[in-house]
Amino acid sequence: MFDMWWPRRRRQQQELSAFADGELADETTDRVAERVVFDERARQELLSVRRIDALVAAALAPHPQADANVRAGAAADAALDAICAQLPAPPPTTPEPRNWTPTVVASVGLLVTAGVAFAGLKRRGWV
């Protein structure tokens, strides 16, 4: 089972990285953008990719002089904030009360099935 989802996960991460860099074709860009809008996990991964890109860009930038270290750190923070500001804001979510989760429904179904089977066995005198 591990082999079934791993390639898809790897492809999705590569697509998000290419999306952050603007290297995707139009139809792929639309598909990835839609996934980012509707999937919180994809949105968090995209934010992580963009933060890493900003950190790498800051690390590869020419080394500022010793007295300008504070200004360089502030510039890197401003660049990171600018990148984070470009991300779409997550839609507000209100938790809905879910009394009937799939687990509860499955459990009730199993209990009913077991009860019917037990009643049939008892009627036949096997229990």
- Tally of discrete structural domains: 2
Q: Could you spell the SSE succession in H and E letters? A: HHHHH
Helix content: over 70%
Give me the number of helical elements: 5
- Model regions low in confidence, pLDDT < 50 over at least 5 residues: none
Taking all Cα atoms into account, the compactness measure Rg is: 26 Å
Largest sheet: none
Anisotropy-based shape: elongated
Structural class: mainly alpha
Beta content comes to under 5%
Distance between the termini: 40 Å
* Average pLDDT score: 79
Give a structural overview.
The chain is mainly α and 127 residues long. It folds into two domains: 2-90, no CATH class; 99-127. The chain has five helices and no strands. Helix 1 packs across helix 2 (26-38), helix 1 packs across helix 3 (40-60) and helix 3 (40-60) packs antiparallel against helix 4. It is elongated, with a radius of gyration of 26 Å.
How are the SSEs placed, and which strands pair?
Layout: H1 2-21, H2 26-38, H3 40-60, H4 69-86, H5 102-124
Helix pairs in contact: 1-2, 1-3, 2-3, 3-4
How would you describe this structure in keywords?
2 domains; mainly alpha; 5 helices; 127 residues
Gist?
It is built from 5 helices and no strands. It has 127 residues and is an all-alpha fold. It folds into 2 domains: 89 residues, no CATH class; 29 residues.
